[in-house]
């Protein structure tokens, strides 16, 4: 009960079942994609910046070497002073220089050891006019700058090529360290963004959560209409839902009024036909009178059941209603005590006054009225009404100590027009009407053997919390209202 999905409704599974999770998944994908692209662009920009800085450093080193380049008395190229970087003297330190004329190296840094930069690489760098990447000693990659320079000598100017190189691994190391720092920073930013997104989504969906709580309270019977202040985007929906509930109540009220009008409209013709049947019987037309009486009884049965159906609210319509069980039982018992044999019976009510059911008051009265009226007709001395609640479901039973109904006849007794016998008056519609009403609430009537040996009529209906819990042990008994007990 109460957990079934609405017809036509399909519930998604996993993250698709929650708008909040859907938005968070989309936000997480967006944040991850955005920060990933940002991280890549930052690392690429940093590498380019390092390459530009490295190019400037190579140009500075080239200028220092060009300023120190001289030709000694033997005509050999020499450096007038030490370049000043100790790494030039460390083998394979990653910082190198080479000075030579075309086809012949003359001055090299000790860091090159027994390796050479290579004339092909030097020629390519000279042609490029800017630093390029070339293969270096021991499988390394160098960033090489080579430019020609002219040095004055007694025999005339001599042309040399000064080449300066730095191992590219330094750029890679710095870029790798920068990428790690950027990754950690972006992870922290992503966490902050996702936390902010979650807060924003929760705040944005807050009115929907409030709307859901309001609807749940209406469904449970705690409220009849949605109340509170809602944002402009949700306010019209709340107004439309309240208007729909008002319209629904109005339609039900008009339907019941039309049902009552129909009942009054049929009452007079049926009464005249019954009087005509009696006149025919007195005149000796017994068969004709019996035929009329049977047809009138059948018409009464049809009218009675259809009017009962027209008055039904049903589970969906009565979602916002909560009916006090003990109060309704007390009112109907007070009415039954005034009916034939009702004052001679012992009526035992074992109902907690705090129990409430999610059922329209008129529908609940229709069910109890028929069951209690049926028990009054068949009981020998005692009728017991009890109600208990378990896990939100109220189980209500009406027991009598009469002859009961054999097990093989109980299903037939809930069919229209079926009577248990001629001992009592009635049209045999009572239990059929009860079954119709309970069917509208997605439950059913169960006929069992009572502990006293008589009949127990039991049904279960969804309960709801009382608006104001009570500590009274018994329900007040009021004057009867217009709840008409039907035949058994």
UniProtKB/TrEMBL annotation:
One of its GO terms (cellular component) is plasma membrane. Pfam families: HATPase_c. It comes from Prosthecodimorpha staleyi. Residues 202-253 form the HAMP domain. It catalyses: ATP + protein L-histidine = ADP + protein N-phospho-L-histidine. Its EC number is 2.7.13.3. This is histidine kinase. One of its GO terms (molecular function) is phosphorelay sensor kinase activity. The chain crosses the membrane at residues 21-46. SMART domains: HATPase_c. Keywords: Kinase, Membrane, Phosphoprotein, Transferase, Transmembrane, Transmembrane helix, Two-component regulatory system.
């Amino acid at each position: 009960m109460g957990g079934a999905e609405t017809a036509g409704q399909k519930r998604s599974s996993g993250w698709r079942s929650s708008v909040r999770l859907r938005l968070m998944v989309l936000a997480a994908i967006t944040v991850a994609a955005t920060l990933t692209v940002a991280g890549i662009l930052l690392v690429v920009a940093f590498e380019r910046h390092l390459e530009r800085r490295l190019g400037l450093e190579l140009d500075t080193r080239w200028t220092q070497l060009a300023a120190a380049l001289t030709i000694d008395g033997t005509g050999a190229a020499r450096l007038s002073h030490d370049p000043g970087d100790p790494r030039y003297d460390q083998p394979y330190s990653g910082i190198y220089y080479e000075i030579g004329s075309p086809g012949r190296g003359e001055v090299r840094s000790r860091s090159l050891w027994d390796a050479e930069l290579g004339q092909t690489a030097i020629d390519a760098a000279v042609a490029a006019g800017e630093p390029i990447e070339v293969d270096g000693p021991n499988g390394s990659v160098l960033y090489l700058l080579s430019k020609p320079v002219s040095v004055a000598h007694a025999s005339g100017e001599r042309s040399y090529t000064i080449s300066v190189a730095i191992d590219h691994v330094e750029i890679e190391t710095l870029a790798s360290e920068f990428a790690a720092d950027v990754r950690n920073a972006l992870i922290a930013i992503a966490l902050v963004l996702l936390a902010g997104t979650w807060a924003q989504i929760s705040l944005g969906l807050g009115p929907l959560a409030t709307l859901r709580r309001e609807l749940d309270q209406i469904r449970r019977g705690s409220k009849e209409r949605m109340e509170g202040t809602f944002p402009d985007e949700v306010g019209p929906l709340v107004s439309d839902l309240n208007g729909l509930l008002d319209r629904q109540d109005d339609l039900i009220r008009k339907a019941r009024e039309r049902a009552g009008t129909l009942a009054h409209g049929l009452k007079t013709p049926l009464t005249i036909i019954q009087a005509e049947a009696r006149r025919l019987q007195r005149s000796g037309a017994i068969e004709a009178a019996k035929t009329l009486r049977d047809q009138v009884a059948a018409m009464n049965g049809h009218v009675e059941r259809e009017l009962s159906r027209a008055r039904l609210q049903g589970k969906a319509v009565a979602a916002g209603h909560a009916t006090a069980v003990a109060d309704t039982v007390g009112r109907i018992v007070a009415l039954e005590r005034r009916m034939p044999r009702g004052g001679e019976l012992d009526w035992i009510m074992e109902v907690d006054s705090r129990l409430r059911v999610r059922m329209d008051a008129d529908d609940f009265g229709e069910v109890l009225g028929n069951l209690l009226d049926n028990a009054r007709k068949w009981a020998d001395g005692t009728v017991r009404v009890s109600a208990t609640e378990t896990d939100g479901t109220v189980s209500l039973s009406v027991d009598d100590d009469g002859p009961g109904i054999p097990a093989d006849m109980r299903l037939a007794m809930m069919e229209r027009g079926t009577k248990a016998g001629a001992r009592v008056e009635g049209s045999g519609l009572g239990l059929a009407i009860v079954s119709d009403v309970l069917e509208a609430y997605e439950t059913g009537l169960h006929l069992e053997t009572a502990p006293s040996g008589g009949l127990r009529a039991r049904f279960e209906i969804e309960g709801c919390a009382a608006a104001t819990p009570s500590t009274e042990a018994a329900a007040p008994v009021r004057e009867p209202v217009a709840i008409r007990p039907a035949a058994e």
